[in-house]
Amino acid sequence: MKKIVLIMLMVLPLLAGAQTKIKETAVPRSVLLALEKTYDSYKVRTWYQAPGQYIAELVIDGQNGRAYFTAGGDWQYSTFPVKVEECPTMMNTYFVNNYPGYRIKSIEYVEEMNGDNYYRMMIIKKGIAENDCEMVFDTRGKLMKSNAPDPEAVKRDYYTHNNPDADDEKISRKTGTEGSRDRQRPAPKVDEPKVEQFAPSAKISEHFDKAYGRRIKWGPDWVLRNDEYAVAYFTNSQKVDMEAVYSITSEQPIMTGKTLPKDRYNSTIKKYIEEKFNGESYKIVKMVVYEYNSKYRDPVDNKKPKPYTYVVISQKVRGVGKKFTRMEFNSSGQFVGLIAQPLDERDVQ
């Protein structure tokens, strides 16, 4: 693959026109020669034609990617899908710390004809009919360009939404952003009826009581998670903190989360975290193993999903307080991705 250059000048737009699959015999000789000059070793899987472009879907050094060429035979740029764990830590940390309530839609590593190389992260706010946002990072993980909303506004809006009774001063301390400048006239207080805590349906309560009713030391404390799940937080008779997750729609049990004691932390996960936070001060706040109910099946492939582990890490930041990094690992202890926000109001805030 071409040598990575640690300079990023500007970003060419990644064209997204209509693409038509074509045979290699329909590709101009100039385009084929340009591909040979660009990469020493490659294997083309499919050719596509778009307005003013030819696109090669290929494999280079065992990595899938796409190379874009002009109709005249000039190489423009190439893109390679990248996993979160393959990106610079600085880049991932920036997203997690500044865009709560958002998720990563895709990440690409881009190589351009002028020698510029960078990461292109597409993020989207969780919800219906939200627009994609683009952030561009250099090869070290430093943000270079973005059309995403201002992170300070995002953090304030997120915290305000989840803490409707908080005043400007409290929001500022929590998010590390400036409070309102207009502090001369306090907002009028309105008497509002007390909002009842979330209560599960009778059927969900019946499922919970049948499974755990006689083996509880504390709880349950019910919360709503992402408007999709009813979650019971409780401590069982062995003094282990647990979570029972139920579907709001089907009212059936989905999975159970078990908070691990420090002496039972997954060694593979601990090693990964040590390497990623090398030289930094951090603390594993909690490590929760989620196992799916024996009767639950994935609606896509109709198979029982494998267990996974959710980890919350805290770090002290001078002038801000604590910041949290949330990570997900698969059943083998391999890193899957970052989570940009608490799971629900009972999660570490």
Topology of helices and strands:
Blueprint lengths: L19 E3 L6 H10 L4 E8 L2 E8 L2 E8 L4 E7 L7 H10 L3 E11 L4 E9 L6 E6 L5 E4 L4 H12 L5 H8 L26 H11 L3 E10 L3 E8 L4 E7 L5 E7 L7 H10 L6 E10 L15 E10 L3 E9 L5 E5 L10
Antiparallel strand pairs: 1-2, 2-3, 3-4, 4-5, 5-6, 6-7, 7-8, 8-9, 10-11, 11-12, 12-13, 13-14, 14-15, 15-16, 16-17
Helix pairs in contact: 3-4
Report on this model:
The chain is α+β, with helices and mostly antiparallel strands and 349 residues long. It has a domain at 202-339. Helices cover 17% and strands 37% of the residues. The protein has helices at 29-38, 89-98, 151-162, 168-175, 202-212, 267-276; strands at residues 20-22, 43-50, 53-60, 63-70, 75-81, 102-112, 117-125, 132-137, 143-146, 216-225, 229-236, 241-247, 253-259, 283-292, 308-317, 321-329, 335-339. α3 packs across α4. It is elongated and about 75 Å long. The model is unreliable at 1-16, 179-185 and 188-195 (pLDDT under 50).
Mean pLDDT: 83
Spans of at least 5 consecutive residues with low confidence: 1-16, 179-185, 188-195
Order of helices and strands: EHEEEEHEEEEHHHEEEEHEEEE
Biggest sheet features = 9 strands, antiparallel
